[in-house]
Amino acid sequence: MSRQDVNRSGEMDVFARVVRLGGFSAAARDLQMTPSAVSKLVARLEHRLGVRLLNRSTRQLQLTAEGAAFHEHSVRILADIADAERGAAGADVPRGRLSINANVPFGECALLPLVPEFVARYPQITLDIVLTDEVIDLIEKRTDVAVRAGPLKSSSLVARKLGGTRKAILAAPSYLARKGRPRVPADLANHDCLGFNTARTLNGWPVLHEGRAATLPAAGSVQVSDGASMQRLAVAGVGLARLALFHAREDIAAGRLVPVLEEFNPGDVEEIHAVFLGHGGILPARVRALLDFLVEKIRIEPLPVAAFMPMSTTSARSRRRTRAPAPSSAPAAPPAAGGRTRR
Predict the structure, then answer these.
(1) For tag attachment on the chain, is the N or C end more exposed, with fewer CB atoms within 10 Å?
(2) Interhelix angle 65-88/8-21, nearest 10 degrees
(3) pLDDT tens for each residue of 299-339
(4) What is the pTM of this model?
(5) What's residue 200's pLDDT?
(6) CA 36 from chain center: how many Å?
(7) DSSP one-letter string for 156-175
(8) Can you name the CATH fold of 165-269+303-311?
(9) Which of 225, 218, 221 has the alpha carbon at shortest distance from 204?
């Protein structure tokens, strides 16, 4: 069969459905074909490409490394074709299922509050939202856009920056009353430091030590899987937590959490990005709509912790930093009428 006779987009569509639906029979029902016809088409595709795309067993199909790469490109090409056809037909209206994956703090504080406005603006989009601090494979989980905090690893994903946040070591007043306030970074060894139980997370906290950035061990009796759980446990007085300020700002403003060791805070900024499969320049209208909406609406700036603290607390700290006047042996004269008394 010559290359001109091969319906390559049709082969990609069949192969992508087999992967998405988990088998030849399910794909055949979706395509109104026989399972044997679907199986033969995939086998013919493998023969033409000269590689095995799927490992077959009696119970399941598993993508090979070559199959995963071909599937990634196929999904993107099919989406580009559909988007081009809609645009050519004058129907470039955002529509369809849009899958979003976000870490729990960002989802609770930034994403979910925006959902009512987004669905009102784009009524033909159906949102599928998953909140987890686990870093997922967008292809494996069939996700359009993921929001990730922290440094991005090199990959085939495209990223758009949504903002950045500083972090701080925080504690509930009840915890400090019980365990005391750490005065220097070395004091962390005597405190309960809440940590993460995910393999990708290092349970050490960056601090300034003798004028240089260093990472100190931060161990405690409780580890959690996400930042939202850590924040709730910190408010409950279970231990110290190093949290993103955009997530903890309301608890800081209300006095439920207070910063400690701020003079040793290195001031590192955790950047937040939306990542997606977008090489080639053409995005499905629904994905482009979400990305533009998030860039328009998200306002996460790397402000210092003092920007979120109650005014009375910051004023008290300012007064403590002001040196009191030296005592005088002479009695103080009463203030003149209309004069101001120095505080």
Answers:
(1) C
(2) 120
(3) 899 888 888 888 655 444 444 444 444 444 444 444 443 43
(4) 0.65
(5) 56
(6) 43
(7) S-EEEEEEEEEEEEEE-HHH
(8) D-Maltodextrin-Binding Protein; domain 2 (3.40.190)
(9) 218
